């Protein structure tokens, strides 16, 4: 199909423009210093070409294949400003929406009527990387408030709702399962995950992110999914990812997500900047957290009360209460009205700084329009007073609340006070408020009574708790299973298991059926008193009455373990696994450790392998415990075999694992293998620990292989410096009688001339004296004086006496004269010093 005259003219103009751009590229390479700016302009032109090319019909494109191919090559746009390369945690950044160039040459993006200067954003991020961590109280971060323009705003709901059905969706659960298997990924698994990803709705992607127990894994999945072909994150996913990151210290990840949103022209909510602020604050970067306000201003996103509240909370959490108050004053000046959340953040800050009077004064200054919400502010102060046990002030605050704020304490107030006092261990005071509430006609439900009962039980005052339960029965407020379980737990804590068993039977008489928690409390009491077999029988008889859970089996397993009945404990673990209850790595490790301590390391290894086959979460610590058990028995071949099994099961050894094997090899004289194992540890990127240094130094010095030790230490010290490494070598050589070898290393110790070095020199001097060589001690003392280190006077007096006995009078005289020159021995006492 032929092109009309008008279309051909357009094509000629575009091709001419392209040729001119090629000439500009050559000139720009020689003269322009701002490459990033040039590429931005070039990409803008390329998008114009892409827009024209996409406007043709399919017939027109097919009629000019050569031009179509060339244009298609120019239409590929990628955001290459970020040079990060990822695999699972990678990301390929793309963008395709419209933009325009401002008169100053900077690119301006439009987000729903708001403008964002992208260049200003990137420059801010670059300057932020170079900024120091000054935590001064400068108000420079408040300047963003000065640009606030007060105008009527329409509140837009911006909540990201992920309902429980999405979390339980089969697709979401399958993707979470595949993510958990990421350490053993194969191309087939990754292909399956890619296929499922394209079937997810945006809300389901958010559910996958929120379902991850480790936020770092969620971030890696976000990056991985973003670089997949024919998939693009929905804007809601970016908001959800930032919401996940604000619970962590992954501030750099949160900042990177924000930069991606800017580059891809995704509308940024003020709450997104708040998430980044919180993440920086959690990471301890208070200054950078406050700089996010400036970033928000440069991005063209206007402040709102939620971001201001976040800023105040960040300052309060950073112990900058005065700065938070100044921020509040600046908010009032520019016309941002604080709400009850603002005041509550400041009240919390006052309480954390132990300034209750300031908190109460702030409550009095709160505007009348929030008077109905004052009760929340009072509860914040009351919670602090309850925690501190300041009951008199608590009552005074309640009276002040009724007198000045016309907020009479109601049933909710009393319930709150009772729960707060009980939580912090003030049972009698909580009971006093319960009596007062009942005198005023309020009805405290069983939850309030149960809180007091539990508090009394934790204090060991079971009789008082039992009296309250009897009062509840008289009042018609029947105790529930939670109340009885608290009393059962209290009886078991003080060893009254028989009374607990009787109360268990009485519960049926009062129409309250015990549940699994009730029985587990009694079983725990039996196991603590050494009756684990009886507890096991109760579990066997539980059918039809109650159903044991994982905690129940764990209690009995630990009971058998404490009693030394390890075979029965292993049987309990196997029964747990058969019934679908998987013991945690900590529980497995405790049992493995007990088996190793009694020399049953082979059985420990068998149990660990069985748990691993059944799907239990066996970790590196469990393998290390088994290896340590074999090393204690000097069964090094078995220990090395378990080390190989770790690699086969994709469990990478850590520093403790390597150190355990290195120590065992050195103890058995296999120093060459210990050296190779140390090099392997360093090659794996692991750093030697102080225990690693001590172990190697001990075994190499014992066999006087100093040269090999020094060569090995030269490789270890650059990776993980140990300031006392050479001190330890000298002291160990002295311990094993290799004094001359120790003296050769004295120069490495005297480089720093610290107190630790002086102690090492004293060890060497005593070793020389012990072997009848006071001249060696004299040489060490002289070298100490030359390095401005003063030896121990009493030790040098012993050296002087030994030198006199050997007729070395000149050396003895010079040694003591050095002390006189230093002013350590007065001249008149010189003769006494020679003694």
UniProtKB/TrEMBL annotation:
Keywords: Repeat. Transmembrane segments: none annotated. It comes from the Eukaryota. The keyword Repeat applies. The keyword Repeat applies. It holds the Pfam family PPR_2. PPR repeats lie at residues 304-338, 339-373, 410-444, 445-479, 480-514, 549-583, 584-618, 619-653, 654-688, 757-791. PANTHER family: MEMBRANE-ASSOCIATED SALT-INDUCIBLE PROTEIN-LIKE, OS03G0201400 PROTEIN. Belongs to the PPR family. P subfamily. This is Pentatricopeptide repeat-containing protein. It comes from Sesamum angolense.
């Amino acid at each position: 199909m032929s092109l009309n005259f008008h279309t051909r003219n357009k094509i000629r103009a575009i091709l001419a423009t392209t040729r001119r751009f090629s000439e500009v590229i050559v000139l720009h390479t020689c003269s322009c210093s701002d490459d990033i700016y040039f590429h931005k302009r070039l990409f803008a032109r390329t998008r114009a070409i892409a827009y024209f090319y996409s406007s043709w019909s399919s017939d027109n494109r097919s009629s000019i294949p050569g031009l179509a191919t060339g244009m298609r090559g120019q239409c590929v746009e990628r955001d290459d400003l970020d040079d990060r390369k990822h695999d699972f945690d990678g990301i390929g950044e793309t963008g395709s929406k419209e933009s325009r160039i401002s008169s100053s040459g900077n690119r301006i993006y439009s987000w729903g009527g708001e403008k964002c200067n992208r260049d200003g954003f990137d420059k801010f991020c670059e300057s932020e990387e170079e900024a120091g961590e000054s935590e001064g109280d400068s108000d420079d971060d408040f300047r963003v408030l000065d640009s606030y323009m007060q105008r009527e705003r329409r509140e837009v709901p911006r909540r990201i709702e992920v309902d429980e059905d999405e979390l339980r969706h089969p697709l979401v659960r399958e993707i979470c399962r595949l993510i958990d298997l990421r350490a053993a990924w194969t191309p087939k698994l990754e292909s399956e995950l890619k296929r499922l990803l394209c079937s997810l709705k945006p809300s389901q992607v958010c559910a996958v992110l929120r379902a991850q127990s480790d936020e770092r894994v969620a971030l890696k999945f976000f990056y991985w999914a973003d670089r997949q072909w024919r998939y693009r994150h929905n804007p809601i996913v970016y908001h959800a990812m930032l919401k996940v990151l604000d619970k962590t210290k992954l501030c750099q990840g949160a900042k990177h997500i924000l930069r991606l949103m800017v580059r891809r022209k995704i509308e940024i909510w003020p709450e997104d900047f708040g998430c980044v602020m919180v993440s920086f604050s959690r990471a301890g970067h208070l200054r950078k957290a406050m700089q996010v306000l400036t970033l928000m201003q440069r991005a063209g996103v206007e402040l709102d009360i939620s971001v201001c509240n976040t800023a105040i909370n960040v300052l309060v959490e950073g112990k900058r209460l005065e700065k938070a108050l100044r921020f509040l004053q600046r908010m009032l000046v520019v016309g941002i009205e604080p709400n009850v959340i603002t005041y509550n953040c400041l009240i919390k800050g006052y309480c954390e700084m132990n300034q209750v009077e300031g908190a109460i004064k702030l409550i009095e200054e709160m505007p009348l329009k929030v008077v109905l919400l004052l009760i929340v502010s009072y509860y914040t102060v009351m919670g602090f007073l309850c925690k501190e046990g300041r009951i008199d002030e608590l009552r005074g605050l309640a009276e002040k609340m009724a007198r000045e704020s016309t907020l009479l304490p109601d049933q909710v107030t009393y319930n709150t006070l009772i729960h707060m006092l009980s939580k912090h261990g003030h049972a009698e005071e909580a009971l006093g408020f319960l009596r007062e509430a009942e005198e005023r006609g309020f009805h405290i439900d069983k939850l309030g009574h149960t809180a007091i009962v539990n508090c009394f039980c934790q204090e060991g005052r079971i009789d008082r708790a039992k009296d309250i339960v009897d009062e509840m029965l008289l009042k018609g407020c029947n105790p529930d299973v939670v109340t009885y379980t608290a009393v059962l737990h209290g009886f078991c804590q003080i060893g009254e298991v028989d009374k607990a068993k009787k109360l268990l039977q009485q519960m049926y008489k009062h129409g309250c059926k015990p549940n699994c928690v009730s029985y587990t409390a009694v079983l725990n009491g039996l196991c603590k008193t050494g009756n684990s077999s009886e507890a096991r029988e109760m579990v066997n008889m539980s059918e039809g009455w109650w159903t044991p859970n994982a905690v129940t089996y764990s209690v009995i397993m630990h009971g058998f373990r404490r009693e030394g009945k390890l075979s029965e404990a292993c049987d309990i673990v196997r029964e747990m696994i058969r019934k679908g209850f998987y013991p945690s790595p900590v529980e497995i490790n405790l049992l493995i450790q007990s088996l190793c301590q009694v020399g049953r390391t082979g059985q420990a290894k068998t149990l660990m392998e069985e748990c691993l086959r059944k799907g239990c979460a066996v970790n590196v610590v469990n393998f290390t415990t088994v290896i340590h058990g074999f090393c204690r028995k000097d069964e090094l071949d078995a220990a090395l075999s378990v080390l190989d099994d770790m690699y086969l099961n994709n469990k990478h050894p850590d520093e403790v694992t390597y150190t355990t094997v290195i120590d065992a090899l050195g103890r058995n004289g296999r120093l060459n293998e210990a050296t190779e194992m140390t090099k392997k540890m360093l090659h794996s990127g692991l750093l030697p620990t102080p225990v690693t240094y001590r172990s190697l130094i001990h075994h190499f010095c014992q066999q006087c292989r100093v040269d090999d030790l020094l060569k090995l230490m030269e490789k270890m010290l650059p990776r993980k410096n140990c300031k006392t490494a050479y001190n330890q070598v000298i002291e160990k050589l002295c311990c094993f009688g290799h004094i001359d070898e120790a003296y050769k290393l004295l120069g490495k110790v005297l480089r720093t001339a610290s107190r630790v070095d002086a102690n090492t020199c004293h060890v060497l001097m005593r070793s020389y004296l012990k072997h009848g060589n006071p001249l060696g001690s004299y040489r060490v003392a002289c070298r100490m004086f030359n390095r401005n280190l003063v030896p121990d006077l009493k030790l040098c007096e012993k050296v002087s006496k030994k030198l006199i006995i050997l007729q070395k009078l000149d050396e003895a005289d010079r040694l003591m004269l050095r002390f006189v020159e230093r002013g350590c021995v007065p001249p008149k006492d010189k003769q006494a010093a020679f003694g």
